[in-house]
Amino acid sequence: MIFEVFRQERRGQAFAHAGSIDAPDLEFAEAWAREQYGRRQESEALWVVPREAVREVHDFPDELSKTYHRVDGYSLKAKLKEARERAQTAESAGALSADG
Amino acid sequence: MSRRAEQLLEIADDELILGWRDSEWTGIAPTLEEDVAFSSIAQNEIGHARALYELASRDLGTTADALAFDRSPEEYRSAPLVELRRLDWARTIARHWLYETADELRLSELKSSDDAELAGLAAKMDREEVYHRMHAQMWADRLRGDERFEAALDELWPYALGVLAPEQRPAFADRVGREQVDAVERGEHSDELRELWNEMTMVRRSIPGATW
Q1: What fold does the segment set B3-206 form as a domain?
Q2: What predicted TM-score, i.e. pTM, was given to this entire model?
Q3: Which residue, A77, B29, B61, B209, has most beta carbons within 10 Å?
Q4: Total number of domains in chain A
Q5: Cα–Cα dist A22/A1, whole Å
Q6: Checking DSSP bridges between strand A2-8 and strand A45-50, what pairing results, if any?
Q7: According to the model, what pLDDT value does residue B185 have?
Q8: Could A35 and B36 be called an inter-chain contact, meaning their C-beta atoms sit closer than 8 Å?
Q9: Residue B132 at interface with chain A, using a CB cutoff of 8 Å
Q10: Residue A28: closest CA among chain B residues belongs to which residue?
Q11: pLDDT digit string, tens, across residues A43-91
């Protein structure tokens, strides 16, 4: 049985895939994962997961090139500048009205 | 030599020789994962030996390296169980499981010793031994009933008894569900230990007094 091992390097960090282990059951997988990924104090915690429990997802079609779904396909610069200016105007308007 | 130094050397020699024997599986263990795990356990045992030798060396006015490598084979106090050269997985696991069970009893007594230094080191070692026991137990559970494993337990049981002092043996027999028999006691060494010693001390003997 194949088990996938995920390793957390420091408390609070995300777990990242460390490698796979071929073990007869979860108990062996845990013992082997411990020695392979924890004996040098390189891990805060491990997740040992049967590979079957992992659903692998493929294929993310983008037939119509919807670039606006991507960060690089949608420029925020101009929009942000405009919003800042508007906020400043509103601020000074607010200040004026407070004075008045 | 004080009883404390004797006791430290007995355990240190057991751990050093067993660590050496276990490391003979490096590269040829049954699976890659087990190879890594068993080699890591072997390194731990040698680490325990070093800590114990360091403690003993202060009592004896010498160094840990001198204790580990500069004594003659006859001066080692290791139990015959750890000296056996048995490159057979069933026997290796039988020895590992018997030794870890005995070692747990030995450490638990040391942990409650009045000697704070000894008790402190025993507690530290035990925190690693927990995982050795877990490893030994899962293998023993898996091999239980296997003809070769059961034969290995029968063969090694008198040797295993020799790891512990006579007063600790009834609890050991009880723990593993076996009758007490005549133990193979510490003191006599086999040719297998002399061969191991030749190999283990070869580099150090090649340039006496060198610092590495």
Answers
A1: Ferritin (1.20.1260)
A2: 0.85
A3: B29
A4: 2
A5: 6
A6: antiparallel
A7: 96
A8: yes
A9: no
A10: B138
A11: 999 999 999 999 999 998 888 877 777 777 667 788 889 999 999 887 7
